[in-house]
Specification:
It is a single chain. With 361 residues, the protein is α/β, with parallel strands linked by helices. The protein has a six-stranded antiparallel beta sheet, covered by helices on one side. The chain has a six-stranded parallel beta sheet with strand order 9-8-10-11-7-12, with helices on both faces. α4 crosses α5 and α10 packs across α11. Among the domains are: 91 residues, Beta-Lactamase; 154 residues, P-loop containing nucleotide triphosphate hydrolases (Rossmann fold, 3-Layer(aba) Sandwich), CATH 3.40.50.
């Protein structure tokens, strides 16, 4: 017997036709196009390689200007000048390769979710929900600083003594946070929350034992019925994963507006717009994380025709989630009584899904 959960997941927007007795023959579907066929360019790969070489030359030129005394270099004989420049470039290239080889294995390991570095001699990773201490072969603090600078420079950011903290999104979507001296008293601190490229559906969560089949059916039906949902839980409990999984049950003909400071949402819908405003005619609003004053705008949207919206919030229990929402609304400075705040929350929210990370991960 097909469950409601399976029916919702395998829904089809087109009306069902009665089954015909005649056998169905499969035909190759050809999509017509008015575009002219263009022969592939053979020089595309070399052009891409040439761009990489050009980028490397630009970086080396920038380093030469920043780290070498050009006035003193010009006074040297040409042979001595070439030798010093060659040694400088060779050393920088070696450091670059060493930095890449040090961090790359951890970033490519699919079982690692978080990388936590507390100085160059104290490193941890979260593997399958459990923290484990690992050895990362950083030569010294300067080596770790070079890796930090390489990562932030790739996304157009910088970190130094005048701005000792940086929060950025890496090229693969992972969240990167670093703090160096003087904020990091014992050395550079690094936190990397890796961006998961695998979209876990509710079926997978049921297979993993994260939720039961009955829970999945209730949540799928609630999303499809446009019930406004808050997903609550502590850090690393899978709030964003659950939000992404539930998005599969939003009808594909609805327009979604997502609001998030770190691009982690992987909604499984075609009509998704990432914005920082609600004035874009959305059918539903998806708030990546409710942290502060945006709680008022979120509740206003939920109470004004955007039923079925979803958001995540950091809280240990559903009661704590409601209390946090009350505190966030109080932070807005709006002249609202406690009774008015609670009335707004009660009328806006239908379901609170509480997530917890167990001791076994």
């Amino acid at each position: 017997m097909t469950s409601r959960f399976s029916t919702l997941q395998n829904r089809d927007l087109r009306p069902q036709r009665p089954a015909e007795a005649a056998p169905v023959t499969q035909h190759t579907v050809v999509i017509p196009t008015t575009r002219k066929l263009v022969a592939p360019k053979v020089e595309a790969a070399p052009a891409k390689s040439a761009n990489k070489v050009l980028d490397a030359r630009v970086r080396i030129h920038r380093m030469l200007l920043e780290e070498i005394n050009l006035v003193a270099l010009e006074r040297l004989p040409k042979d001595e000048m070439r030798r010093q420049v060659h040694e400088f470039v060779s050393e920088k290239t070696r450091h670059e390769r060493m930095a890449i080889n040090t961090a790359e294995p951890l970033l490519k390991d699919p079982e690692i979710n978080d990388i936590l570095i507390n100085g160059h001699q104290n490193c941890f990773v979260e593997r399958r929900g459990k923290l484990q201490q690992v050895h990362i072969p950083f030569k010294d603090e300067a080596h770790l600083l070079r890796i930090i600078n390489k990562i932030v420079a790739a996304v157009g950011r910088r970190v130094d003594e005048s701005a000792p903290m940086v929060d950025a999104r890496m090229l693969d979507g992972s969240r990167f946070n670093a703090a160096i001296r003087p904020v990091g008293v014992d050395g550079p601190l690094v936190s990397i929350r890796k961006f998961s490229k695998n979209k876990l559906g509710l079926h997978k969560l049921v297979e993993f034992g994260a939720i039961t089949q009955n829970m999945a059916e209730v949540l799928a039906a609630a999303v499809h019925a446009r019930k406004t949902t808050i997903i609550s839980g502590g850090t690393g409990t899978g709030k964003t994963t659950m939000l992404n999984a539930l998005s599969a049950f939003i009808p594909e003909d609805e327009r979604l507006i997502t609001i998030e400071d770190a691009a982690e949402l992987q909604l499984q819908q075609p009509h998704v717009a990432r914005m920082e405003t609600l004035r874009m005619r959305p059918d539903r609003v998806i708030l990546g994380e409710c942290r502060g004053e945006e709680a008022f705008d979120m509740l206003q949207a939920m109470n004004t025709g955007h039923e079925g919206s979803m958001a995540t919030i950091h809280a240990n229990t559903p009661r704590d989630a409601i209390s946090r929402l009350e505190q966030m609304l109080g932070m807005t400075g709006m002249p609202m009584t406690v009774q008015s705040i609670r009335s707004q929350i009660a009328s806006a929210i239908d379901i609170i899904v509480q997530l917890t990370s167990l001791s076994d991960g």
